Amino acid sequence: MNITVAKKLTAKQTALVDTLVAKGCSIGQAAQDAGYASGESGRVTATKTLKLAHVQSYLMKRMNEEFGISATLAAGTVRRLATGAKSEYVQLEAAKDLLDRAGYKPIDRSQVQVAGDIRVTIDLG
């Protein structure tokens, strides 16, 4: 029987991931902010830490949370541009983006052009 035990993150691992997600800074800067050794050794340790499965899992969870929050801000920005941008081109592109995301994407049309002669010979004898 194979039982998987979920490892708990240390305070430093949690701080490292939270700093990376919140600040969008380099691994070296996040390592320093999270309390890892300064300089190259801290960056190397943080890089190894970020490769651990349980840390990767937490990183993906935090990124999904952050994208969910940011998506509402982005949608508001696109909506604001669609109605209030000075440029009609920007309004058009924002409106098309909103329609696309709402499921009203234009039909993909492809044109097939055949050049040359097509000959069919059927010999029944």
What do these coordinates show?
The chain is an all-alpha fold and 125 residues long. The protein has one domain (11-101). Helices cover 62% and strands 0% of the residues. The protein is built from 5 helices and no strands. Helix 2 (27-34) packs across helix 3 (40-50) and helix 4 crosses helix 5.
Short description:
The protein is an all-alpha fold and 125 residues long. Helices cover 62% and strands 0% of the residues.
Question: What keyword list fits this structure?
Answer:
disordered N terminus; 125 residues; 5 helices; mainly alpha; flat; single chain
Helix content: 55-70%
Radius of gyration: 27 Å
- Main beta sheet: strand number and arrangement? none
Residue share in β-strands: under 5%
Number of domains in the coordinates?
1
**Which structural class best describes the helix and strand composition?**
mainly alpha
* SS elements, strand count: 0
Number of helices: 5
Give the overall silhouette. Answer: flat
Segments where pLDDT lies below 50 for 5+ residues?
1-5
Q: What is the H/E string?
A: HHHHH
Q: Kindly report how far apart the N and C termini lie.
A: 71 Å
| Average of per-residue pLDDT values | 88
